[in-house]
Amino acid sequence: MADENRARTAAETGKTQVLVVGAGIAGLAAALRMSRQGRDVVVVERAPSRRSSGYLVNLHGPGYDAAERLGLLPALTPHDIGFFTSILVHADGREKFRLPAAVAQAAVGNRALTLFRGDLESALYHAVAEHADIRFGTTVQALTQNADAVDATLSDGTHIRAELLIGADGVHSRIRELVFGPESGYLVDLGHMVGAFPLESAPEHVPEGAGTTFIGPGRTAAVMNLGPKRSSAFFTYRCAETTTELSHGPAPALTEAFGDLGRGVAEALHQLDADPAGAYFDSVGQIVMDRWSEGRVVLLGDAAWCVTVFAGYGAALALDGADRLGEALATKDDIPRALTAWEASLRPEVGKRQTLARKGMSRFAPSTRAQVRAGELMLRAIQLPGIRTLVQRSIQRANN
User: Fold this and answer.
1) Which letter, b or e, does each residue of 190-226 get, where b requires 16 or more Cβ atoms within 10 Å of its Cβ?
2) Structural domain total, the chain
3) Distance (Å, rounded) from C-alpha 2 to C-alpha 114?
4) Distance between CA atoms of residues 315 and 62, nearest Å
5) Any domain includes 265
6) Each residue of 56-85: b (16+ CB within 10 Å) or e?
7) How far is residue 345 from each of residues 157, 243, 296, 307, 321, measured CA to CA in Å?
8) Is 61 within the bounds of a domain?
9) CA 41 to chain CA centroid, nearest Å
10) What's this model's pTM, rounded to 2 decimal places?
11) Are residues 203 and 261 in the same domain?
12) CATH number for the domain that contains residue 280
């Protein structure tokens, strides 16, 4: 009945209908921005229910600014983890050295949030749920478009005609495939795997309020202890055959790659083996496209650009991209022209982040032990006042 009332109200008031595919960060942010502009919004999501992932996202620079413009800061600030001590460890878990929280805070500044991805998605969901029709367990089976509208056939047999369709359905986007062609034409495999998952219980061998990180040739493992149900683990490693690796599943693959490590990593892998359902596990790849829109269909977030975990900027770009998209549509009546202007404004930032990610892969998976040692020397040097100032300026330049 609520959906019928919403549809009837839209017809009576002449609101523009927007179909958003994907209820992740990019999709929910876009739905929030569109609904606040008076547009009637329908969101469809393949997953049967809301997703909650335990790995961390960082919002600073344009990402923090976008969260502020979207009115999310009051809901997000109580969930801010803030800065915490990072401990580099040997393979057996023994400590090498520490980076105090104050070092990171001085480098990044105060306009920053560190959040669990699930907390960010929850804040977005609660902000938009009363203003949009959100349908879980639903996908787009087919779509056509003309100069005036997009017609989508959904998996539940219903049809939606929208003036704009936003494909925010992730790196393996169904909308991208339907409109632009197979994923193979746009996905650049970077030859790495990534796994991340929440920890049901806090790891005993990681100090509370801190995270331990092991960096070795070709791999990184990080475990963070913020207490029960607030702790998480992150893994990445080089892999020549990513398709084969995916077929193994997260627990067997990560245990094979990191099973020789001790203490916190061993605890995390044990929890993963007991309950692998909540793990994120995928190959690392970037989406590279000549254009992000076709007529009245536009891609947003990982579906369009996927900067990868190595950039550490995916959530920030999703928020910023959604907010800018709303601004472009608000200032131009012609939707295709608005999409073109939006893309032109955002492409330089996306290109910069993708380049930084490719350059930064060696920090997460150094090729040699010499590179590992060089990275450790750099991390130690960051604690020196003069070097810390240089790092702070570098981060500030990257965020402008």
Assistant:
1) bebbbbbbbbeebbebbbeebbbbbbbebbbbbbbbb
2) 2
3) 36
4) 11
5) yes
6) bbbbbbbbbbbbebbebeebbeebebebbb
7) 37, 35, 18, 17, 10
8) no
9) 22
10) 0.89
11) yes
12) 3.30.9.30
Residues 264 and 196 in one domain: yes
Tokens of 183: 């994923």
Token duo for residue 190: 């970077």
Nearby residues of 136 by Cβ (< 8 Å), 6 or more positions away: 23, 45, 47, 48, 49, 50
168 shares a domain with 194: no
**Both tokens assigned to 96:** 């090498």
- Residue 50 to residue 120: CA distance in whole angstroms: 12
Amino acid at position 75, single letter: A
354: tokens are 């993708």
The verdict on 313 and 374 lying in the same domain is no
Shared domain for 40 and 181, answered yes or no, is: yes
Question: Could you list the residue range(s) of the whole structural domain that residue 392 is in?
Answer: 82-113+189-285+363-399
- What's the CA gap between 327 and 254, in Å, rounded? 42
Asked whether the beta carbons of 49 and 338 are under 8 A apart, the reply is: no
Asked whether residue 62 is assigned to any structural domain, the reply reads no
Residue 14 counted as domain residue:
yes
- Length of the chain counted residue by residue: 400
Instruction: Based on the fold, state whether residues 357 and 367 are members of the same structural domain.
Output: no
Per-residue pLDDT of the chain (400 residues; tens, 9 = 90+): 444 444 433 433 334 599 999 999 999 999 999 999 999 999 999 999 987 666 788 898 899 999 999 999 999 999 998 888 999 999 999 999 998 887 777 767 788 999 999 999 999 999 999 999 999 999 999 999 999 999 999 999 999 999 999 999 999 999 999 999 999 999 999 999 999 999 989 999 999 989 999 999 999 999 999 888 889 999 999 999 999 999 999 999 999 999 999 999 999 999 999 998 889 999 999 999 999 999 999 999 999 999 998 888 899 999 999 999 999 999 888 999 999 999 999 999 999 999 999 988 888 999 999 999 998 888 888 766 555 555 555 555 555 5
Residues 29 and 43 in one domain: yes
User: 44 and 149 share a domain?
Assistant: yes
